[in-house]
Design brief:
The protein is an alpha/beta fold. The protein is 70% helix and 8% strand. The protein has a five-stranded mixed sheet, with helices on both faces. Helix 2 packs antiparallel against helix 3 (44-61).
């Protein structure tokens, strides 16, 4: 038996006439076609359904085993529409009371409806696809659908439209350059924009930026402390940079000789290390808070703020010694203290983890 399937992917039949689908049988399909033609004579799906009836009548007149049906999808989502068409095809096949093998002939009005071919083929062999278009608009819908798909795809849209848009800027920018007597600058601006776009595409900057923005959005909705900690840490880093520069300028003003590279680095570190340490402690505490709330906190994570404090102590003492602010005894004390803080922290949390560990790290911290 040949099953003539008329495909209406966006469910014009159901939306405009109220017919429940699938529609099975010659009389029911003709009634549906008349109803759709009455409701919207310009709808291309009218031609599809009448073409299905025409094929049915032609084959039936030659005493071939044939049935005709109309299946529809839903408006708006191709994925849901294809799934709905598959379900309706299953219903049609279940209604056929025949012992013969069933094959299908799809009747569509363009490339969009033909996207269901793999869905139908997974259920019944397909003998062919008949596309029905008005002669005056041959291939018009297919071209429209192709353009629509290109514009709907963010990847293709960014790849094609952005370079075209940048190139189209050349002419107006050159005119502006001629008016203001700086045509070279305008051409350079266009070239720069095009070059930055190509570099960003090559390095995947757009995708990384999208991932970053999505991560920030999820952090806001999830109430993560890490986001606030990073903002505060960024401010502390900026303040640290300013403080380091001010310290360097102050030491340069105290001497008429030019400072060597070791002294320049020492001055920058001496003026900024406390700010950088505060930023490191802030971010580590924010991360620890989020891990604890999420139930993933491990004892070893608690080492982070102590390690930052130990390193800051050592760097501060070394930079102060190079600048002549402290004696060697202070440096030795600071180095020893920093080392002891790191060792004590590591041993303390290692012992705590071994004593309270039961396979669930978050429960270890909770019970401690």
């Amino acid at each position: 038996m040949l099953l003539v399937l008329c495909v209406d992917l966006d469910d014009d039949l159901g939306r405009k006439t109220g017919f429940s689908t699938p529609v099975i049988g010659r009389e029911a399909v003709e009634e549906a076609a008349v109803a759709l033609a009455t409701a919207d004579p310009e709808d291309s799906d009218v031609n599809v359904i009448f073409q299905g009836i025409h094929i049915y009548d032609d084959l039936d007149s030659r005493n071939e085993s044939v049935e005709v049906a109309v299946v529809t999808g839903v408006e708006g989502s191709d994925v849901v529409a294809n799934r709905t068409v598959g379900e309706e095809v299953d219903t049609v096949l279940a209604s056929l009371s025949t012992g013969e093998d069933v094959t299908a002939l799809l009747v569509t009005d363009g490339a969009q409806d033909e996207s269901v071919v793999p869905i139908v083929r997974s259920r019944v062999p397909i003998d062919g696809v008949r596309r029905v278009v008005v002669r005056q608009s041959q291939n018009l819908e297919s071209m429209y659908y192709t353009i629509k798909q290109v514009l709907a795809d963010p990847e293709t849209r960014g790849t094609i439209l952005i370079p075209i848009g940048i190139l189209l800027l050349v002419y107006p920018l050159v005119l502006i350059g001629i008016v203001f007597e700086v045509p070279g600058a305008m051409l350079g601006l266009t070239s720069t924009l095009f070059g930055l776009y190509l570099i960003s595409r090559g390095l995947g900057v757009g995708e990384r930026l999208d991932n970053t923005v999505e991560g920030i959005r999820q952090s806001l909705y999830a109430g993560r402390m890490t986001l606030i900690a990073y903002v505060v840490a960024a401010a502390l880093v900026v303040l640290g940079g300013v403080s380091g520069r001010n310290t360097l300028q102050a030491y340069q003003a105290q001497t008429s000789d030019e400072l060597g590279l070791p002294l320049v680095l020492a001055a920058l570190v001496y003026g900024s290390v406390q700010w950088f340490a505060a930023a490191g402690i802030t971010t580590s505490l924010g991360q620890i808070t989020d891990e604890y709330i999420a139930g993933r906190l491990e004892w070893r994570y608690l080492n982070a703020p102590f390690y930052v404090l130990a390193m800051a102590t050592v760097l501060h003492a070394v930079s102060a010694f190079f600048l002549g602010e402290v004696e060697i005894g202070y440096l030795a004390t600071a180095l020893t203290a920093g080392t002891l803080v790191g060792i004590a922290s590591t041993l303390t949390f290692a012992v705590a983890e071994s004593r309270f560990g039961d396979g669930n790290e978050s429960q270890r911290v909770g019970r401690a």
